[in-house]
Amino acid sequence: MAFVPISIDDYVTKFLAGNPDSERSEVTARLEETLADFKAGTRCACGARIWVIGSAEAGHGCFRCITGEAYPEEDYEIAEASTKTAEPRAAKGSPLREANFLARPVKRGRIEAMES
Q1: Which of 66, 70, 90, 104 is geometrically suited to a Cys-Cys bond with 61, CB 3.0 to 4.6 A?
Q2: Per-residue burial over 54-74, b = 16 or more CB atoms within 10 Å of its CB, e = otherwise
Q3: pTM (2 d.p.)
């Protein structure tokens, strides 16, 4: 499952349809600022890439941390930030790589080996 790419202008039009009290210029500015943060490499506290559309409203966070859902299903993401490539791997020895290793599910039988 992946995001549905959308331009900033198209997304702002949809956003304003559901939020008529919002100002087009303010919504656009938030999205452009958050997109710039995305391009600069800003990450969610969990280490994942930020979700530009969600982060513009809720603060820097990935899709999972903002929505609580594992994967986007027909959710929009700004086209410039939408990607079909996998997350780049963290460098060897980096805290993020260590955290990702520790967060992996443990197969049966490995728990005993880890405890001894």
Answers
A1: 66
A2: bbbeeebbbbebbeeeeebee
A3: 0.70
Tokens 């005993």 sit at which residue? 112
**Residue holding tokens 């039988």?**
109
Q: What number of other Cβ atoms are within 10 A of residue 95's Cβ?
A: 9
Q: Strands, DSSP E only, in the chain?
A: 4-6, 76-78
At residue 51, the pLDDT reads: 95
Q: Which of 17, 6, 81 is nearest to 48 (CA)?
A: 81
For the chain, list residues with pLDDT below 50: 84-90, 97-116
Residues 98-116 as b/e (b if ≥16 CB within 10 A, e otherwise) read eeeeeeeeeeeeeeeeeee
pLDDT at 23: 96
Helix (H, G, I), strand (E, B) or coil at 6: strand
